[in-house]
Amino acid sequence: MTVTPSRTPRADGDADGDVDVDVTVVSSARPTARHGKRPGKASGGSPEPPSASGGFLARAALVTAALSVAGSLLGLVRDQALARLFGAGRDTDAFLVAWTVPEFAATLLIEDGLAFALIPAFSMALARRAQGAGGDPVRALVAGTLPRLSLAFVAVGVLVAALAPQVVGALAPGLPDPALAVDCTRLTATCVLSFGLAGYCSAALRAHRRFVAPAAIYVAYNTGIVAGMFVLGERWGVRSAAVGVAVGGCLMVAVQLPSLWQQLRKRGEQAAGVAEEPRPLGGAVVATVLLFALCRQSQVLVERFLASQLPSGAISHLNYAQKVAQMPMILSLMVCTVTFPVVARALAEGDTERARDRVRRDLALAACVVLLGTAVVVACAPQMIELFFQRGAFTARDSSATAGVMRVYALGLLGQTLVGVLARSYFSTGRASWYPAGAMAVGIVVTSWLGALCVTPWGVYGIAAANAAGITVTALVLLAGTASGPAGTASRRGAHRVPRSVPLHVPSVLRDLSRPVGAALVATPAGAFAGGRFVDPAAGLAAGTLTAAAVFVLLGWALGAQGIASALRSVRSATRRLPHVRSR
């Protein structure tokens, strides 16, 4: 049964047309030990509105996914423009070394690091607001954190620009043209500030159940890069892409500011009473999430360090392969982007059982999405790369090398997705947890050791294989850390305390994952066979994709994969109200 959101859209609507729901659950309301249900009244006597419904989450996930797909497609256009204008050689290798800065900044400040620290903090502030705390805890949190974080972003950006020669020398000591990479690094260093502000806005808006503006940031970002290359490419060469990174970072902030300002002003006008002192964002919490994100992104450093010693173009082949192969992983994590504030809010209110159920469903759905994408990527890699990139300076030899690397790299996509989902289960508690960083460090050691061992005999293929092995080990270590014993036991005990992570029953999770894995193992050769029967890459890609998808869905349904049934229910729930939305 679909539960309607606790608040319907107002007649006047919102300026940005965003998906909005206000979930005000008093934190003193807890699930009973026997049934796990919350009472209908909070301790203060006010009615307790229901939490975000499955229909709302499905619609929010679809909106987020649609805008993320648009951003990914523009990212593909960006990579196509880079390949067409500058090929896969010395210049693109130099720019991609400099692109390490925005890649790190995106992971640390937008996608993983800052979001893992800020969304639980904003969720706690929203819970305190619902309890009737004096003043507005949300605005107090912004006032207490944003100025300090902004100064830190500026300082780090200036430091990166000043140390650009040393940064390039450490990242790629074998680079043939370090001067070009230094110039690009100094231009991309501006993204430390812009990405930091964009990540802060995204975390605040998502905690408020506002998803449209945060999901649109990569549309704005890639638009800036593409425009920079085409406007300045002839005059400045590959430096134009670095200029585009700087412009795109500013656009990421600009698309979110109106929505965030509206939320803070609207909520601030409703606040009453004497404002309380803001609860500071714990330094240990920030340190643990940033260290985890830094370790995770260090895989890129290992890859580029090893690839810089190979012939020119190796870094570019790895980059193009990753950008295409990661699309299924990005799509698979869209549902977690929407549900992470829900999990954090549930733990802030003491409802561990609801958080555990949400994480298990997220794991099942994300695994199905990424394994379907993995089957398609492995089956149709040559057709994808030829269709997307083989033009201009990007030759057939480059296509062959990139497709081979992409197939190997795709073997780690399930591990990438599991790490993304499971990390949220640790950091949604709002507590400092060093375990995820330790798990990621183990994976980095595996990646580095295997990469150094395999790069000489197998080149870029050995680097991609080491990446897949390292991230898979990390996922298994993270999953082991969530062990809760018999299903349901930990959730009842955890209803009265905040656990280290959302507790999961590991054997049940592994059993759930085995079903879509089996479906993917059959769908991959079926898709490769269908796609290989066509000479035209577009026809081969279409045939391979449709065949792999059909086999995966049918076999997964027959095996009882929970994520497939959940996805179909979510689509029905999200589309059930479309006629009503159009009529409004």
Automatic annotation (TrEMBL):
<feature type="transmembrane region" description="Helical">
    <location>
        <begin position="434"/>
        <end position="452"/>
    </location>
</feature>
<feature type="transmembrane region" description="Helical">
    <location>
        <begin position="363"/>
        <end position="385"/>
    </location>
</feature>
<keyword id="KW-0573">Peptidoglycan synthesis</keyword>
<feature type="transmembrane region" description="Helical">
    <location>
        <begin position="541"/>
        <end position="568"/>
    </location>
</feature>
<feature type="region of interest" description="Disordered">
    <location>
        <begin position="1"/>
        <end position="52"/>
    </location>
</feature>
<feature type="transmembrane region" description="Helical">
    <location>
        <begin position="212"/>
        <end position="232"/>
    </location>
</feature>
<keyword id="KW-0812">Transmembrane</keyword>
<keyword id="KW-0133">Cell shape</keyword>
<dbReference type="GO" id="GO:0005886">
    <property type="term" value="C:plasma membrane"/>
</dbReference>
<feature type="transmembrane region" description="Helical">
    <location>
        <begin position="187"/>
        <end position="205"/>
    </location>
</feature>
<feature type="transmembrane region" description="Helical">
    <location>
        <begin position="405"/>
        <end position="427"/>
    </location>
</feature>
<keyword id="KW-1133">Transmembrane helix</keyword>
<keyword id="KW-0472">Membrane</keyword>
<dbReference type="GO" id="GO:0009252">
    <property type="term" value="P:peptidoglycan biosynthetic process"/>
</dbReference>
<dbReference type="Pfam" id="PF03023">
    <property type="entry name" value="MurJ"/>
</dbReference>
<dbReference type="GO" id="GO:0015648">
    <property type="term" value="F:lipid-linked peptidoglycan transporter activity"/>
</dbReference>
<feature type="transmembrane region" description="Helical">
    <location>
        <begin position="238"/>
        <end position="261"/>
    </location>
</feature>
<dbReference type="GO" id="GO:0034204">
    <property type="term" value="P:lipid translocation"/>
</dbReference>
<feature type="transmembrane region" description="Helical">
    <location>
        <begin position="458"/>
        <end position="483"/>
    </location>
</feature>
<dbReference type="InterPro" id="IPR051050">
    <property type="entry name" value="Lipid_II_flippase_MurJ/MviN"/>
</dbReference>
<feature type="transmembrane region" description="Helical">
    <location>
        <begin position="149"/>
        <end position="175"/>
    </location>
</feature>
<protein>
    <submittedName>
        <fullName>Murein biosynthesis protein MurJ</fullName>
    </submittedName>
</protein>
<keyword id="KW-1003">Cell membrane</keyword>
<dbReference type="InterPro" id="IPR004268">
    <property type="entry name" value="MurJ"/>
</dbReference>
<dbReference type="GO" id="GO:0008360">
    <property type="term" value="P:regulation of cell shape"/>
</dbReference>
<feature type="transmembrane region" description="Helical">
    <location>
        <begin position="56"/>
        <end position="77"/>
    </location>
</feature>
